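Objective 1b. Sequence-to-structure analysis of histidine kinase.
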Amino acid sequence: MRIARDGEVLEFHFHENGDPALIALDFGEKKLSEHFFLEEMMEAVEVCLETGESQSAYFTLTHLGSRKHYEVLIEQHDEDEVLAIVKEITKKKQRENELIEYYDLLQNIYEGTATTTGTDYLDQLTHQLSKALKADYTAICLIDTRKDLLETVSINFAGSKVDNVVWDLEDSPFEQVLEHSYLEIKQGFKNKFPEFELNKGHIFNGFIGVPLYYNHMFGEPIGFMFALYEQALVLGKHNEKILQIFSARAAAELERVEGQKKLEYSENRFKALYNNTPAFFSSTNKVGVVIEVGDYFLEKTGYIRREVIGRKAIEFLTPQSQKVGLKILPKFIKRGYCKDVALEFVKKNGQIMEMMMSATTIRDDRGRFVKNIMNLNDVTHLRRVERELRKSEERVIHAANRYQSLFDNSPVGIIIHTDGIIKHVNAETIRLARGNSIYDFIGKKALSFVHPESKAVAQERIDKIYQTKSPHRNEQKFLCVDGSVIEVEAMGTLIDYEGKPSVQIAFYDISDRKNAERRILERDKELERLNESLARQNNQLEEFAHIASHNLRAPITNMLSLIKIREVDPSLATQEFVWDNLGKTVRNLDETIIELNDVVKTSWELDKQRKELHFQEVLERILNNIVDQIAKANAEFVIDFTLSAIFYPKIYLESILQNLVTNAIKYRDPKRNAVIKINTWEKNGRGYLSIEDNGLGIDLDMHGSKLFGLRRTFHANSDARGVGLFITKAQIESLGGGIKVESQVGKGTKFIIDFGTLS
């Protein structure tokens, strides 16, 4: 449309498949002010003419009962006129409204549950779900497979919370919900499940439901979430998505509550063990001040808790033992543990107890210090007996105690198995393997804790130990009790256990080390890719420098020569000759500088943000821009986008397609109509694009090595500049891809682009 300053439409044109709603407006010789809904468009025209800047405006029409939305792009034509392009954006507007709906829904969920947890949180979820789906009845159910029952954890009926109930699993819709992942019954729910408890006191017609999982990928279903309607179900556009959002939040909270229960149970067990175990347990802070002490400790030493808490642990030792403690302190701080340190402890009544101390430093998940835990074993009586026994017997007893202490308190996991069946494990094994007690291991096959990928290696290690009777070390993946996987380094040794040849496996977690190694390998690969990219850019820079020096020097030399001619012969004819040729030379120089600037922009392009692009949309945009060229060439396009989309920088994909398509048209064979075939596909995780024409073709034997060079042309075409293919190759290779060409003179040319890996 061409519009005057006063809003009069001076000229307008419709697309051949024009919008009937716009055609019905009849803009001919009318002013925008005649339509109240074009007020914003009129204001945009005035602003555009005032500022000279492009403007946008929007309006809405109702045509044949449907609301349609439009966007107007306005550009200044001259001092008193603008040009306007009107395009329909109804679908875009609908998508924006859908996003607003989703945002409002998520905001309502957040605001309704932000200050609650546990059952209150779940009750808020069912309440919010009833509002979001306009349902009469919403509920969250959990499965008790041992009793074949469904137990509700939250119910909302008619906008209010009601008491939880128990239903028979067999008569419920759970199995069908699980089978379909999302079950929707428009009407007749009562007829489909007549024995379901809810249908005995109410009449429900509509139903929607989804299963609940702790882990969506691998977990077993824990129950389901559903909504019921007394009337027939009115299908909402987003019912399934809304229910999925609510079910995910419900499952996450249920899992959090379950985890909290397990944590509390674990903490209670630890406290009971700490206080009730017949061992001298105590804990200190970083500087050795006692912060916790077990009941057994107080009972046997005669102190009360306030006499111990707040004092340094070393104060309870004899002066000689204090020296021992100070001596081992640096090693303890460095290692984070110590074992079987002989000390003399002074009881409240002044008596000396001979003790064996083991200690370890506890750190949180981030490696930050929490506390030191110490265990003092009272060996006073043992020492008295040992001193009375012969030295040989003393050594045997001492060695036995040291071995047991080492096994129990070893910083590495230890598993002993006989004939492949686990007989004994230490505490570190239970910790590393995320177990609860030794009964998670005793009696089970040792290989059942080995990841399938490592079973062959583990079996080979065991066979070698029995055959060579020598220790054997290897790395493998270890399956924990909870199903998680850690990477370990394991050392196997042949021992005698309960009179039978057995294998003792000592192992420790090397997951962090292996992850670090993998990260290093990934960084090495990234550096290699960067080096390749730098090498390509260096080659391009060298070629650019060569072309720049050659192509810029020639016109400058020509200009200097013309000036000298004028100085020698200042006649009018000579001046006309000089000025005419200077003009041509300057225009050529300007053209060369523009081309070199395009090359520089391509080589150092910063805007390489990848986004999902659909080939069809990008190609249509390009073809719309070269309609005249297509028409003059009478070009036919054969398109097969098997690979429909790719993550790629938008400016690069448009440039690559436009260069290759316009080249195919530019170098067509004048004896036949141009046929251009464009295909995309995926192979071995990589994306490919080919553009094939039936044009003049290129002699690759003669020009193949120079095909992608700057300012290289191979046909007597006045439009040829030798820049497009250079830029295309630079763009593709800068993102790790490649391009190759197949061509025969007189038959045509085919360019094949490898975009690289798609992930």
